[in-house]
Amino acid sequence: MKAVLITIGDEILSGNTIDTNSNFIASQLKEIGIPVVQIFTVADTLDSIRKTLETAHQLGDIIITTGGLGPTKDDKTKTAFAEFFNDKLVLDDPTFEHLRKIFIKRNREHLLEINRNQAVVLSKATIFQNENGSAPCQMIQENGKITICLPGVPYEVKPLIKDKIIPFLKHQLSLHYIESQIISVVNFPESLLALKIEDWELALPKNISLSYLPIGNRVKLRLTATGNHLDELKSQLKIEAEKLKPLIGEKVISWNGNEIQEILKEILIQKKLTLSSAESCTGGELARLITSVSGSSKYFLGGIIPYDYHQKISILGVSEKTISEKTVVSAEVAQEMSLGGQKLFKTDISIATTGVSGPNSDEFNNEIGTVFYSIRVKNFEKTNRLFLPHLERNDFANFVSQRVLQDLIEMIIQEEH
Amino acid sequence: MKAVLITIGDEILSGNTIDTNSNFIASQLKEIGIPVVQIFTVADTLDSIRKTLETAHQLGDIIITTGGLGPTKDDKTKTAFAEFFNDKLVLDDPTFEHLRKIFIKRNREHLLEINRNQAVVLSKATIFQNENGSAPCQMIQENGKITICLPGVPYEVKPLIKDKIIPFLKHQLSLHYIESQIISVVNFPESLLALKIEDWELALPKNISLSYLPIGNRVKLRLTATGNHLDELKSQLKIEAEKLKPLIGEKVISWNGNEIQEILKEILIQKKLTLSSAESCTGGELARLITSVSGSSKYFLGGIIPYDYHQKISILGVSEKTISEKTVVSAEVAQEMSLGGQKLFKTDISIATTGVSGPNSDEFNNEIGTVFYSIRVKNFEKTNRLFLPHLERNDFANFVSQRVLQDLIEMIIQEEH
After folding, report:
1. Dmax of chain B from CA atoms?
2. Domains delineated in chain A
3. Measured between CB atoms, does A26 come within 8 Å of chain B?
4. Does position A143 have pLDDT exceeding 70, yes or no?
5. B213: which chain A residues are within 8 Å (Cβ-Cβ)?
6. What residues of A are in contact with residue B131 (Cβ under 8 Å)?
7. What letters, b where the CB count within 10 A reaches 16 and e where it falls short, cover A61-70?
8. Percentage of chain B modeled with pLDDT above 90
């Protein structure tokens, strides 16, 4: 059982919008053991949609399209589907009724007529109503293939996939199991790591595949096992992970966690430690990353972004003398920021960043890409410097934030020994 | 001249990583007038890469691949290229020398031998050295087509595209011009807007295309003009935008800006206003969005994330009585937070958010998806409530932050009248 995704929309091809739907759909399908074998991103034209539907039906058993269902002139998906399936478009009464309810709820009943077209669907289609928008999800089953047509707005797509499509597919298909485990290795370059575990990799059972996902100076090793018995897969993965311990154990910060902020959550909750942030050059990204995890309020008490340097002095108590002697972008200021943050929020751990993210240099003429960060775990403090002149502003903030959290995790783990 | 992008990598297909490279490359190509007509995301296998190269060469004149160039076993791109172009792979001395320099700079000379394979390239290829990683960029020109093979790491891809590929393409091809303008309309549903400007849209010159990009309750109208004379395109767009003024002028918050944070920058600098944020449920996203714009330190003085409610009291001076009577997620707490933020950071404008982003309810049993936000512009204050139960945690933070900035812009613009 293989899936193919088709993203329809000029806004993706023009580089205006990042396609996040494919990522979400692929990860959801993966969880029920359906691999996505290809993703197409195509223009909102009849011809390209129809042709891609043809190719996709050769490659996969489940075809999912997103986008091109809006009420405006540039949306062609439904017509292309009608042509491809040799079907006609008809007004669907239950969908129109559903639309009416949504519009009443939003006090937009006057818009109903204009949106009537949204209730026009393929006559062969099974309809899944969209609770968060006006275009329904349509599904056609023909010749052993399932074709699903979704709107393009991510917050409409997510609940449709999660609450309607995935349960439907699970019910409809007899699926085999897929189980994966992500092992996070730090301070071990990918090429050297590959060499170190080469023999282990070559000896992996045939139903287990390995992939390397480098991110910053962390490498995620993803082991994916497929088979008919879930318990068997779990114990297989456990055995293989066990074999890695003598080889790379000391460089592993997590044996089964995906995002660094999720690994952090595990450790902080387990050790009952509280955390705060004081960030300048990361501009909120560090706190955003930490709070992107549900339940983070259990350990993250707060953050401050003293963007202007006067705020560093007045709120965090950084000394004016340190700033004038060392400039704002210095190890000393980072240290005083983390100290001030620890006091302000009364937390066990405090992390602080200061740097120049560019593209313009700062008022002290510090070199673009320079960052100092300070990590304080109770009475221990550690300062590091990074130099990242090649990173764009947003990548810079994200890279630094990931690194700070990773270093924090390493620092906590090392303290154990 | 059309471009086709090919993203190679199982980490994208598995939903582990979001493909941001395609977005960046497409937007850069668009600026020099080369439209991307299709994007393929394919597995890291010889067969799928080779087949996709074939299809891509039928669809476009410029084919750009990213990914699959790492030193580990799961990377097959180069071999697929060699088969497709009937070429052989050879060790390239200048590339090896470049690699050596990079490894010395990083104190990783001992890794050079393992990475020797990275200096093995197609014998026909022109090489663009990669300053930020070990896999070079390769280019082959054959039968009037240009095929470019890039690594997959985004911060390696960006400078290669921006500093090497785009200048090369500009020089190599005689390109026509493309000019676009984005008009941001608020509080005007897409379908109603489409109806309102229908006649105008139908009368647009043939070389100008229009697309609708809805985001929250803002709709971005993108006008794209192509032609041989840049000045002509600019004046054409100016004329068409002028015609829109009587139709939708009062609902437009920006006549030429893309992201809400960029529009905000324009307005705040023009009006010499300073800004601070006090955010709870958005967890740093609001500050991140604001500071994602270069030059934001000119008006954004700082932000606070009093995540735990005790911090709202101790740092922002929110009254304990208000919290116990109204709970943390209330209009009153939002108002006191924005007041506290305005005082703490001494800014003209202060914005504050408080809400429950889920998936778990808060300690006061407030309904998941409830948000209150307060905007203070000098002595004026405005509080709004949103209810977004359907949004996932990260989308929720982003949606709320976008909306707050948009409302702030509207509030500043309205004050003028």
Report:
1. 77
2. 3-172 (3.40.980.10), 177-254 (3.30.70.2860), 260-416 (3.90.950.20)
3. yes
4. yes
5. 11, 16-17
6. 390
7. bbbbbbbbbb
8. 70
Of residues B402, B366, B407, B408, the one with CA closest to residue B387: B366
Residue A355's pLDDT is 95
Q: For residues B8 and B115, which has the higher predicted lDDT (pLDDT)? A: B8
- Percent of chain A topping pLDDT 90: 70
Residue A73 confidence (pLDDT) above 60 = no
Residues in chain A: 417
Output the average pLDDT for chain B.
91
For chain A, give the mean pLDDT: 91
Q: Which of A16, A291, A359 sits opposite B222 (nearest CB)?
A: A16
User: Which residue of chain A has the CA closest to B24?
Assistant: A15
**How much is the pLDDT for B332?**
97
* Confidence band for A112, pLDDT divided at 50, 70 and 90: confident
Do B214 and A306 count as a contact with CB atoms less than 8 A apart? no
> A379-416 pLDDT, tens per residue?
999 999 999 887 888 889 999 999 999 999 999 988 76
Nearest to B111 among A111, A192, A284 (CB): A192
Is residue A61 pLDDT above 80, yes or no? yes
Q: Which long-range contacts (CB under 8 A, 24 or more apart) does B126-135 make?
A: B127/B92, B127/B94, B127/B95, B128/B160, B128/B164, B128/B165, B128/B168, B129/B94, B129/B95, B129/B98, B130/B156, B130/B160, B131/A390, B131/B102, B131/B159, B132/A390, B132/B156, B132/B159, B134/B71, B134/B99, B134/B102, B135/B69, B135/B70
State what percent of residues in chain B have pLDDT above 70. Answer: 98
DSSP run (H or E) holding B210: strand B208-215
The predicted model gives B242-255 an average pLDDT of: 94
Q: How far apart are CA B278 and CA B334, in angstroms?
A: 9
- Taking 60 as the threshold, does the pLDDT of residue A173 lie above it? yes
Cβ of A26 within 8 Å of Cβ of B14? The answer is yes
Chain A residue numbers touching B278 (CB-CB < 8 A):
none
**pLDDT 10s digits, B153-212:** 888 999 999 999 999 998 887 677 788 899 999 989 888 899 999 999 999 999 998 988
ipTM of the complex: 0.79
Nearest CA in chain A to B387: A106
B contact residues 290-319, partner A, Cβ 8 Å cutoff = 290-292, 294-297, 300-308, 310-311, 315
Nearest to B212 among A41, A72, A213 (CB): A72
- Å from A231 to nearest chain B CA? 22
**B283:A301 CB<8 A:** no
Chain segment A203-248, per-residue pLDDT in tens: 999 999 898 888 777 899 999 898 888 899 999 999 999 999 999 9
Q: What is the 3-state secondary structure (H, E, C) of A23-50?
A: HHHHHHHHHCCCCEEEEEEECCCHHHHH
